[in-house]
Specification:
- This protein starts with 9 loop residues before the first helix and ends in a 22-residue tail after the last helix.
- The chain is 74% helix and 0% strand.
- It has 128 residues and is an all-alpha fold.
- It has helices at 10-48, 51-106.
């Protein structure tokens, strides 16, 4: 080294310059990525605070609540239908027991019928 001048072989010069060029490229790429990230972040923030995004979210929330209301309505309807079916079934079973009891009162030779043990309605008395 003579003052501010470096003296080296040409191959050493190429090697050092390639390293310096690579460093400059990495710095340039990093700066490009950082500037892109900032602009993308700003674009995302602008979109998230825009009326269009608010409208989209409001639409989704509204659809959710409409669907939930429909589900609740269907569930209430289904429960009513089930309760109605249970009542009809209970009345049918009571009628079967009444009919069997009446026939058993007339004829003492009635066969035993499985399932009419009347454990479901103990207040109805079977004649045996």
């Amino acid at each position: 080294v003579n003052g501010n001048i470096w003296v080296c072989k040409f191959n050493d010069f190429l090697h050092i310059t390639s390293i310096i060029i690579e460093l400059f490229n990495q710095i340039y790429k990093r700066d490009q990525v950082n500037s892109t990230d900032k602009s993308e972040a700003k674009n995302i923030l602008n979109f998230l605070t825009s009326p269009a995004f608010a409208h989209s979210i409001n639409s989704l929330v509204s659809t959710y609540y409409e669907n939930q209301t429909e589900i609740d309505f269907r569930e209430r309807t289904f429960r009513k239908d089930i309760e109605k079916s249970r009542t009809i079934n209970s009345n049918l079973f009571k009628s079967i027991i009444d009919m069997y009891s009446g026939l058993e009162a007339v004829s003492k030779n009635m066969p035993k019928i499985k399932g009419i043990e009347n454990t479901q309605f103990p207040d109805l008395k079977l004649i045996n």
